[in-house]
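Problem 3 from the worked examples.
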Amino acid sequence: MREPLYLRLYRQLRGEIESGRLAPGTRLPSIRQMTHDLTVSRTTVETAYEHLCADGIVQCIPQSGYYVNDLPQRRPAHADPAPEARPQPCRYDFSGQRMDPELFDFAIWRKLSRAVMMDSDPFLGYGETQGERALREQIARYLSAGRGVYTTAEHVVIGAGIQSLLGILCEIFDKDSQRIAFEDPGFRKGFRVFADHGYDTVFISGGASGINLDALRQSKANMLYISPSHSFPSGASLTHRKRMQLLEWAQQNGAVIFEDDYDGELRYIGKPLATLSAMDSGGNVIYLGAFSKLLPPSIRISYAVLPSRLLPLYRAIAPHYNQTSSTMEQLTMARFIEEGRLEKQVRRLRRLYAHKNARIAEAFAEHFGARATVRPNDTGLHVIVSLAGRGDAEQMCAQARQAGVRIVPMSSYQLGNRRTQAAVFYLSSAGIAEEDIEPAVAQLRTVWQ
């Protein structure tokens, strides 16, 4: 397989830097200049530069450009490796990388797992490529009843996480003729999958009402990755009218929409919003879902629902891939849904997360007063907090972590090169106990004063 252009550019620049031919402090050519000189797309150069930044070899200085970092001297090959730095332990965690242990009954999961293990035959092979049929049937019933996505097991594809699924789905399209649009800020790891597979990517800004449709039309994209029920991480929800306009855009342009409904069930006021997939009559929407917001995220089960017109394309490439999700976890999950435990878990989490999110808003009002604005949120596990006045959000988060509070700057989810300097933060209520919320916010006030 031919190596993507961005990867070739990345390797070339990295070699120049590591060899010393590009000295520390050297300013790399601007993206526009590099695009012109090499006759490649802007996305190719941006992706190569982002890889260099991620490696710590290059740093991006806003409004200035990309500069070579001062790299430490390499140690001799025979030297003992340096000990791995341990992450700073955090007493309070708003990152969303963990689940509060009180929110899941592991005893029930263990009981169902033991029952599944009574029949050893399913565990003697690699499992069904598309996913265990028992789970696909249960997911189809669950989606039909709870999300209005009327489908069958034949249309459901299982994978170990959304990224794993996207890696396979990327292969069913001709990437040389595809341009995919992402909301910015947005799902960085999803963007990474498409970029690494050589897709041309473009970023579309989103506001309080969701993605900018005029910018999408002008972008010449023929694919879109979006979370219409609860945009990640901004929290915006698309109106019914905008959803219809998106489907009209897809129909007119023969476009494909990846609908990531990662927490669509967790709506606290009224019924969950209708999915694009439920409204789609043209076979243009691939519905994506996961259980990572309802169960511990270590249970790696995600799923895609493919429209009929794309099933033949998937089946043509499916034999090249083994199933990535554990058969044990798939069959246990099938039992979990069949016994009605998933619906019970969703109802419980709606109540608890709504209460936790409200508690975060109350704590910021108590400790920061009018300086803090907590974006109203009637869906999902997180809130967005803005603090008035200038401040470097990334530096503030580093200070908070040193004091035992893990919090994420919104700039972490921006996909383009421009980084906001505003003090805006993402706070998830998933991994923190309710009684810890107030003391955690009090600690933030102490640190940031």
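Problem 4, a separate protein:
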Amino acid sequence: MAELAIGDQAPIFSLPADGGMVGLAELRGKIVVLFFYPKDNTEACTAEAIDFTRLKGAFAKAGAVVIGISPDSLRKHENFKKKHGLETILVADESRKAIEDYGVWAEKTMYGRAYMGVVRTTFLIDRDGKIARIWSKVKVSGHAEEVLGAAKAL
């Protein structure tokens, strides 16, 4: 898929979460925060999910639903949530369909070795289902607060 830009219609998905299926089409009329992250229980991913959980009430007050997406299984997500007391919706995209539709599956390098993985990226989707903001290659510190500020501005 071509790279997504602000103003584009957000790609529709329906993926499993611990409370059943979560679909973007059903969330039309709400502000949606999609944070794509590489892997449950890694340092940065855990910090990011904890930050979004900490601000869950403020996001709800702003009319926003926060959804985390990674290629991990539903069982891994359930363990991740339990271990860290997470209250955000985490969906399992084991087929990487949404991950690829949003253009966040890319080549990365670590210690000089190239591999494919999820590039930590957050999309803010407005009530009409259009992309209002994109944060790519996210640095976790202060990120959830910045996203909250942008959600409140919609």
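Solution to problem 4. The mean pLDDT is 95. Residues 68 and 90 are 5 Å apart (CA to CA).
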